[in-house]
Amino acid sequence: MNWRRNLVILSMAVFLAAIAFSLYAPFLPMFLQELGLKENISGWSGLMQAANSLTYALMAPVWGMLADRHGKRVMFMRSGFGIALTYVLMAVSHNHYQVFAWRALNGLLSGFIPSAILLVATNTPEVHLGFALGIIQTANSIGTIMGPMIGGVSANLFGVRSTLFASAAVLALAAVCAYYGTREEIRPQQRKSTFLTDMRQVTSNGALRIIMISQLLINTALMVIQPTLPLFVGEIVTTNVAMFTGVIFSIIGVSTALGAPLFGKIKNLNYQGLYVLGIGSGAILSITQGLTRSVWLLGGERFLFGFANAAMLVGGNVLLTQYSNPEERGRIFGVFNGIASLGSVAGPLLGGFLGDRLGLASPFYGSAILLLVAGWFVWTGLNARQALLETQAAMWWHRLHDRAHSHSHNHSHRHLFHKE
Description:
By secondary structure, the protein is mainly alpha-helical. Helix content is 84%, strand content 0%.
């Protein structure tokens, strides 16, 4: 199997899909106004995001299980055309209740990019795994950066509904490219499973349990600043607030796109160390962002935070791959994506609460605390587990050595007795 061919085609497909997924972000509030919503527009926008994340969390383990059973390539067609359908339905909606329903359905059918990451993780040689996952994350980051810019321009030139139809077409193209352009080795399943058995397997594996909890904390930390970041920028600048907010939001994607392949190319990299370093750096930068009162300094800190984000993405995905069996990675990735996406629900809710009660800088400090807890959890948990495994291995080695020595001694004794 040519893993490089898979990587190139999937990177292009993920790039297109990421553009399509993020096209709607700039104009969703405007679209809700166009549909007649007069008040609480930001509240409805947040509710739609939460509903999308929640339904994805519910279905991600199911799609992961089916990916192991029927292959990841099938998931490209299912999610690509399924999400494209929801964009078409959004484009023909008549009120915000319908848009809410289609956003919830969108979450149920999602899973295109996780399926691409999973196919790369499952069919790439171990020695090239970090590099390959870094390239996929770069494609995702660049697409996510370009999507809002393209979406904003397209909505102004052609209208919101036409842009949604275009998003559907781009997703369908990405799905076809990913399905027909890649090859996959489907390993036979050793056992059938359900969500409960998959969840039990993940939680019973100490390393996977540690990584899962850390991913949930990290995702919550990343999302906790989303509701208040535009307002925070508005406090420290007086002109061109919209432009500065867009730059502050996008710049993290630029450095993530630069950092992910850089970390992936480093040979013999300690990915556990990279993961912890990314988490710790992210915590420190979150604190400094909360203290900043200069938009230029904030932009620089967000740019540096993107490298920490890249370290967390690459390190986390490689660790998850290393600690899971190849035959069961689809189910394990599905459980992880579902649990981690709960952070996309909890993060904005927590951020809004902190911003209202403690000020607009407080979500940055809340994010830092969550990251510090995640880093401590990974550092102490995985190191303790590694020490335990090394101790057990040493005990087994000494036991085998003693048995071999005893067997050799007994054999020599019998041989001498026979000669006599």
